[in-house]
Amino acid sequence: MSEAAIIDGKAFAEGLRGRVAEFASQFEARAGRKAGLAVVLVGEDPASQVYVRNKGKQTVACGMNSFEHKLAADTGEADLLALVEKLNADPAVDGILVQLPLPSHMNEQKVIATINPDKDVDGFHVVNVGRLATGLPGFVPCTPLGCVMLLKDRLGSLSGLDAVVIGRSNIVGKPMAQLLTAESCTVTVAHSRTKDLPEVVRRADIVVAAVGRPEMVKGDWIKPGATVIDVGINRVPAAEEGKTKLVGDVDFVSASQVAGAITPVPGGVGPMTIAVLLRNTLVAAHRNAGIVLDENAI
Ligand SMILES: NC(=O)C1=CN([C@@H]2O[C@H](COP(=O)(O)OP(=O)(O)OC[C@H]3O[C@@H](n4cnc5c(N)ncnc54)[C@H](OP(=O)(O)O)[C@@H]3O)[C@@H](O)[C@H]2O)C=CC1
Ligand SMILES: Nc1nc(=O)c2c([nH]1)NC[C@@H]1CN(c3ccc(C(=O)N[C@@H](CCC(=O)O)C(=O)O)cc3)C=[N+]21
Ligand SMILES: [Mg+2]
């Protein structure tokens, strides 16, 4: 029996993509071209191939161009950097996403540093990290921005709430903590060295789990009524022999007995990540073309 409200990220993402599609068609009418997203995939990781295929389909469905570049796993770093430079210079490309992780012979930071910050729709370039840290307009990483959209839709103002972010990665935990700070939450960042994690989590009105450990956060860690955002995407063996399923970093069955609201996996944060990527690409297109867009309207 599930007591918490289920935060339907899939439905929210559909609505967001609908707004992106409206503004994308207005952009096309005004700019005389479609907004464009280039996605670069190096290697044949099956999960990455699924994400890239989904991104491509949804980009086109929103009335934008999708440019997919698939490189062999043994591609040299210099060849990838040359492709990124080519995309930087291509006026049809508004956003560039290089799917991570990259093969181990490549330096991810160097590749990200080569992306033009004004096309960095992932928000991973140090220029965008610095803009977020100082409150300047830039690009915010898609997953944490999607989480904040869901939280504000659910709770309205987040001001004064106690938030715990579990995880301190550059792509989720750190930017998540910064966005919640900007929303005037009192933020605690927990990680693998945190002492007594269950006790830290029990203080929180908002829990964001971005750990990469299947079902680690248990129901008896959750303050009754808290809002739980589960970023984790973990593929684990299913009951049926040979099959797998996706689970989050939160033990959904026990946490949903206690939480006020919770995101499911799948159907929670994951679909938001792609929808926000499309939103960021549309924002990039307007900025790059010098066309004014009310960014709060989408
Ligand atoms: N839904 C989506 O769109 C996305 C989902 N993800 C998913 O989110 C999860 C996190 O991703 P990412 O941030 O890249 O992962 P990382 O592996 O980069 O970071 C994991 C963080 O969790 C911390 N951690 C690990 N073990 C524990 C523990 N036992 N207790 C407390 N903290 C712990 C680590 O601490 P320390 O720093 O001390 O090592 C680290 O800060 C993964 O499941 C990933 O698949 C990621 C991106 C997008
Ligand atoms: N440069 C870069 N940017 C990223 O944003 C990026 C990346 N690299 N590498 C991998 C991670 C992971 N990620 C997800 C996107 C969508 C879902 C998603 O749509 N999930 C669905 C389920 C999909 C399924 O069934 O596999 C859901 O949760 O409902 C999940 C995870 C983006 N990432
Ligand atoms: Mg990582």
From TrEMBL:
One of its GO terms (molecular function) is methenyltetrahydrofolate cyclohydrolase activity. This is Bifunctional protein FolD. Residues 7-122 form the Tetrahydrofolate dehydrogenase/cyclohydrolase catalytic domain. Catalyzes the oxidation of 5,10-methylenetetrahydrofolate to 5,10-methenyltetrahydrofolate and then the hydrolysis of 5,10-methenyltetrahydrofolate to 10-formyltetrahydrofolate. Pathway: One-carbon metabolism; tetrahydrofolate interconversion. Residues 141-288 form the Tetrahydrofolate dehydrogenase/cyclohydrolase NAD(P)-binding domain. Homodimer.
